[in-house]
Amino acid sequence: MGKKIWGLIILILLLSTAACGKREQTQEERQDVFQSGSSENTEENSGSDENNSENLQEDTEYEEMLQMVGVSIKDDKMNYIYDGNAVHLEFQYEALGSKSFGIMILCDGIAVPFTTGEDSTERYLHILPTAENGACKDVDLYFTPIGKKGDLVSVETVDIVEPDFDISQIDDSNIFNPWVYGKKYWVRCSSGINVDMKQDGKERNVSISEDFTTEDIPQALIESSITVREDGTVDNELEYFHSDGYVNGSKSGWLSVDQGEKVEIKITYYGTKGQDIYTGVYLNRELYPVFDGHEYSKAYIDAEHYTTILGEIDTSKLEKGKYICYGVYGNVIGAGSSAFESFILEVK
Q: What is the model's pTM?
């Protein structure tokens, strides 16, 4: 494979994701593939990309490197009605360089169990095989929304790269290095689906913490976030959602602690015109009550404040071993990344 092709692969992996023929933008600028008007980004390979590719070894050694991930809804259908029958999403996905693909569904930020055309068992996370050569694959998703008659429910899908990857034999922090393990457990969220509730759906039977703190965003930063284009169009960076997560004060992909130690999760959100956001934390693919014993955190965010939520993992309740941990948020239009970078927790 030539230098230019490797440069393109690097660009696709690090700067964007493709969704069955559509490409998403970077994490900070992500335009949701579920929303109309998403345009394809094409860029010429830079000299630095070509130089980086010289460091790669033979192509066969990188056959399982994560090169491309994408999701979409068939025919871009975004509006649904719940009339007592399960909502049917015709979901499409692709993941070149990943053996499996995980899917979750959130209703107003809360995970809901669902079935697929391949598995009639209700699960909160379905793990599906990827197609050969990462080709686009179709799967039917069926779920009963959480909500009451008259509600307009916001639905998000969460995709996770190879969530069944065995971490038990991993002994270093390279699991999230795309050149080594293919960026396993990479979490993304896609939004834009709405369900008009003509009948009552599932009850919201979860515990929710509403503890959060806020801090004013400096006025100078608010003003500097606004730009005016030549045509008079006003862009405000703070109208878009932002998240910044830390675990024990860092963003390391690997955290080793002694059994009994507590692990602090700190997440700061800001942006949007104002809305509630729900956050859940998963440990080995299971929702874990890190928010003062609650399963979810609910916090209000807007463009004038930093909103911070705190979670805590009490490792005295965990067996010794390795755990994969990732955060998922929902009910945010246009958001794309996870609440914090996925990491491995090693309890010694």
A: 0.81
